[in-house]
Amino acid sequence: MLSEGLFYDVVRQALWIAVITSVPILTVALVTGLAVGLFQALTSIQEMTLTFVPKLVAIVIVFWVSMGFMTQTLVTFFTSTLVPLIAGGR
């Protein structure tokens, strides 16, 4: 039987892994958005696609680069934590 403390520990680990895997993409989106916003403020160009396209390109590039890290982190969590719980090892 799964105890309440073990359940909360697994949920805490899962949330932490979600934060760790999303930080690279969110950071790049934030920095790109700030840079484009600063550029728009300095040049008085108010084009909506100017904010969307560079941010989308930066996010796709960072996702492609960090995909291995994200996959390895999720696979490690699944095999070391969830599979033993499902199999009844803990």
UniProtKB/TrEMBL annotation:
Keyword field contains S-adenosyl-L-methionine: no
Main location: membrane
Subcellular location: Cell membrane
GO-annotated cellular components: plasma membrane
Membrane-topology annotation of the record: Multi-pass membrane protein
Biological processes annotated in GO: protein secretion
Membrane-traversing stretches: 15-40, 52-75
Keywords associated with the record: Cell membrane, Cell projection, Cilium, Flagellum, Membrane, Transmembrane, Transmembrane helix
Family: Belongs to the FliQ/MopD/SpaQ family.
Record-given protein name: Flagellar biosynthetic protein FliQ
Organism this protein belongs to: Ruegeria arenilitoris
Gene name of the encoded protein: fliQ
